[in-house]
Amino acid sequence: MLCFVILTMTFGHDAISTLDTNSFSINQGIPQLQFALVYIHSIHTLVSHTKFGRLNMRKQVSEIVNEFSEWGLLQHQEGPDNLITGMPDVKDCGEGDLVFIENEKYVAFAQKQKPSAVITNEKLAINFKDLQKTSILISANVRLMQALLRQAYVDRNIRDNGWPRIHESAVIHDSALIPDNVTIGPGAVISKNVSIGDNCIIMANAVIEENVKIGGDTVIHPNATISYDCVIGDRCIIKSGVVIGMEGFGFAQDQQQKSYRVPQLGNVVIGNDVVIGSNCTIDRAAFLSTRIGDGCKFDTLVHIAHSVQVGEDSLFVSQSGVAGSTVLGKRVRCSGQIGILDHLNVCDDAIFVQRAGVTSDVDDPGVYAGVPLQPLRKWLKNIAVFKQLEEMKKSIKALEKSI
Question: Which among 118, 153, 188 is the end of a domain?
């Protein structure tokens, strides 16, 4: 499932068209994906306890294996117990480096550059048997190992910004509850009755309006806005330009079609371990709450309208939008430029690709594409026919003339 989502969202039509949709099972790999997400959450906590920092990485291969052994993600190790000091791109690696190789086209780079360690899959491992000074580690999920190890050992030290813990230009209301381990950057504004959890980072020019509650280990990047009464969970990342809790698009018209604002007085509730990409907007509900479930991840420029409910561990790629009061189940995936209409219900494990337009309820898990919405396999067949319409038209006209 994880590999499938990466294919559809990263490589688009060329990759998705090569999938064997007869053999694909929507539930295949779901327990593994849940396991992986739990692990990512744990590593996020580990990194937060090290001040979100770039550690001075000096780790023996055996130490890395031991620190991750309880998760069962590294199945086998061969070669020397080398010292690892970095994790660069495979094209720029050398002694002291650990690299991740899950694609055959990168094998030659590792063979030439001779890094100190390679994490790869069982199929590709044979290509490195001649690298006697390189430690070879086998993993069933190389990409996941890359995410986890890079978070744990070489992530950006987000606290190392050169400013005091609370910058003198920050504007903080006296009633705000801010623990002593919170970092607040230049120009940040924190309004009355705000509650911020331990180890949070509020970066430059972020605005936190009144009565907002933010859980522990959450990062609010520059120029983000969290509007009044909203709730943000633990270990969230809110990136630059995000706006959470502005009014939803609610207007009433009179007989002359003049529009009158309908106050949107609910809020937005965001769960734990949510990542919201730059310039996303999540509107407050009209009455109750717009809700984003635990573990959801948003690319840039995604819009979630008022009163929408998004289930746990859902993923949204750039320029997707969900209209008001729609309810999405768990693990819904939207690739780029997906549109979902208002007041719909979408089941768990629905995946939308190829600019799908969702105009009615989706009751069955599966992969869907296009407008009108169709199962992916059917859409691929129809799009193949669509490309031949001109030739078919000519054939029909020729047949008509011959009759």
Answer: 153
Residues 74 and 195 in one domain: no
Catalytic annotation, pick one of 44, 221, 303, 306: 306
For residue 131, what is the domain's CATH number?
3.40.1390.10
Beta strand pairing status for 366-369 and 374-375? antiparallel
**In sequence order, what are the residues at sequence separation of 6 or more whose Cβ sits closer than 8 angstroms to the Cβ of residue 23?**
none
Summary mean pLDDT of the chain: 86
Average pLDDT of span 328-334: 97
Q: What's the whole-model pTM score?
A: 0.80
Q: Residue 143 — very low, low, confident or very high, per pLDDT cuts 50/70/90?
A: very high
CA atoms of 50 and 40, how far apart (whole Å):
15
Find all residues with CB under 8 Å of 254, minimum gap 6, and list them: 260
Identity (one letter) of the amino acid at 291? R
Q: With bands split at pLDDT 50, 70 and 90, how would you rate the model's confidence at 399?
A: confident
Q: pLDDT band at 221, cuts 50/70/90? A: very high
167 among known catalytic residues: no
Pull the structure tokens for residue 293. 């479930």
188 and 216 inside one domain: yes
Same-domain pairing of 177 and 147: no
Q: How many residues does the chain have?
A: 403
Quick one: 337 and 273 in the same domain? Answer: yes
Answer whether residue 43 shows pLDDT above 70: no
Domain encompassing residue 198: 171-382
Q: Classify residue 252 as exposed, middle or buried by CB count within 10 Å of its CB (0-12, 13-18, 19+).
A: exposed
Helix, strand, or coil here: 102? coil
194 with 78, same domain: the answer is no
DSSP 8-state class, residue 166: B
